[in-house]
TrEMBL record:
Pfam families: RDD. It comes from Enhygromyxa salina. Residues 10-25 have a biased composition (Low complexity). PANTHER family: PROLINE-RICH ANTIGEN HOMOLOG, PROLINE-RICH ANTIGEN HOMOLOG-RELATED. Residues 71-212 form the RDD domain. It comes from the Bacteria. It is found in: Cell membrane. This is RDD domain containing protein. The chain crosses the membrane at residues 129-150, 181-200. Keywords: Cell membrane, Membrane, Transmembrane, Transmembrane helix. It is a multi-pass membrane protein. Its main location: membrane. GO terms for cellular component: plasma membrane. InterPro entries: Pra-immunoreactive, RDD.
Amino acid sequence: MATGVAPRVATEPASEPASAPAAQANKPKRVPVRRRPMPCPHCDAELERELAAAATAACPHCERPLMPVEVAGFWRRCAAGLIDLALLSVTAGPIAWGLHRLIGSVPLAPDARGLDFALTLFATDVSVLLLRAGPVLVLVGLYLMISVAWTGRTLGQRLLAVRIVDRHGQPPSVVVAVLRALAQLAGTLAAALGPAWIAFSSERRAIHDLVSGTYVIRAVRVVSG
């Protein structure tokens, strides 16, 4: 029977005072959940916040089982992104450099260094910058699309034990993977506002997650009916 995703954010419970009774110390940990309830992926009925912490999560309306998950935190997603960035730096970077050498592209600021180079780039027309960055953007986009469509996660996410799912807990389809990659590139080019949204989202979702309807999770606990 199909299950759906009920995201929750895992945080460390507040520590009890040193003078608290032993009973309080042994009190079961409360599982924080998202601030707004998520609709059931089967019948779209609004769910209660506490449902994600239930031992056997099921929709109270359609009675179909749900799948509580632990979303990947901000720093874990940042670490996975840095791993992917390092991988692309040693693959897409040299390939793009070779293509520019092959077609004889003239450097934008061959003699500029440091701040002068940054100011030169800032004064350059955006269309010129996008054209020069075209090979890198294409390679990065292909990496994101193929990785997510094929395995549901990038290499960095695999090493950090996280993966991408849709609202039904399934790996993204090819269409969703393409949409997500395009939104991720656009959000990164826009002063990295897309990835930065993770820090402000209770579900730790970036803008490209919101656009594509995906979640980045750490673990999945399947509840049998």
